[in-house]
């Protein structure tokens, strides 16, 4: 009888010790740095009760409130894969140290200020880098092709943006 | 004989006398004392009145199947505890307690190590403490990121999946 009891105890401890951490390691729950992933503030907002949303929005002046509601609605209407990619980049941006986040946001603004044709060229370069393993992206950034096609400022923007690319 | 009412258990002695539960020599002794003690006699008379009143109460009729019905009800009561049938006859909760305690300790340790493991429910219903400015900043970030137009390989679903 004592032996059976010991076996039951051991089984329960094993289940507690193995199953629960395994559940915790489920894909998508943690970021690459092992930090538990939180929902973005937009997601948190969308999951609020209507009453809580109203309370949060009441803090804003009417015009600003209307604009914000429209922006949230636009984001929520994006196709699911695009939302996923944006959330991924948002997560990676927010995982960076504060100074680097500021630098990346600065580069994003610089990118927005570029002429349309240059933006198009940079997008293409970023897309091609996204398909590479992370180790090869650095090599690609230093490649003669990138150096010849992009100015110093553009290379800086690309280097900054490449930190947000999804892992391959 | 000393007056029983002077004694701590004297009243019980008188009640026992009235119920005819005393030994003959005690009975005779107490009767002798009561002749000369008005307090004891008064208590005995009062108790005798109670007994006589009880004797006059009509005795309830006991149905013939009284025993059978009692046993039937006991059996029905036992049947109600169906879950006991699942347990061994000599089941005891005692050995379960250390296991439960061990599980509780493990669970507590695990929660301390990663407190947000079980916070999925809380995420589903976030507190209204979320600052609306955070939402605005997140939207600003999302707008800037969207202009990159980088699709990349499909990512694993985010825990905060589309609503």
Whole-angstrom Rg of chain B: 41 Å
- State the end-to-end distance of chain B: 95 Å
**Helicity level of chain A, as a percent range?**
over 70%
H-E order of chain B: HHHHHHH
In terms of quaternary structure, the protein is: heterodimer
Low-confidence parts of chain A: 20-29
How would you classify the helix and strand content of chain A by structural class? mainly alpha
Please state the overall shape of chain A, judged from the principal axes of the Cα atoms. Answer: flat
Number of strands of chain A: 0
In terms of DSSP E residues, the strand content of chain A is under 5%
Which sequence of SSEs, written as H and E, runs from N to C of chain A? HHHHHHHHHH
What is the average of the pLDDT values of chain B?
A: 78
The main β sheet of chain A shows up as: none
Which pair of chains forms the biggest interface, and how many residues does each contribute?
A-B, 68 and 47 residues
Shape of chain B: elongated
The structure class of chain B reads mainly alpha
DSSP summary, beta strand count of chain B: 0
Q: Can you describe this structure?
A:
The complex is a heterodimer of chains A (168) and B (163). Chain A has a domain of 71 residues. Chain A is an all-alpha fold. Chain A has 10 helices and no strands. In chain A, α6 packs across α10. By secondary structure, chain B is an all-alpha fold. Chain B has a domain of 53 residues. Helices cover 58% and strands 0% of the residues of chain B. Chain B has 7 helices and no strands. In chain B, α2 packs across α3. Chain B starts with 9 loop residues before the first helix and ends in a 17-residue tail after the last helix. The chains are: A mainly alpha (168), B mainly alpha (163). At the A-B interface, α1, α2, α3, α4 and α5 of A face α5 and α7 of B.
Overview features:
heterodimer; A: 168 residues; 10 helices; flat; B: 163 residues; mainly alpha; 7 helices
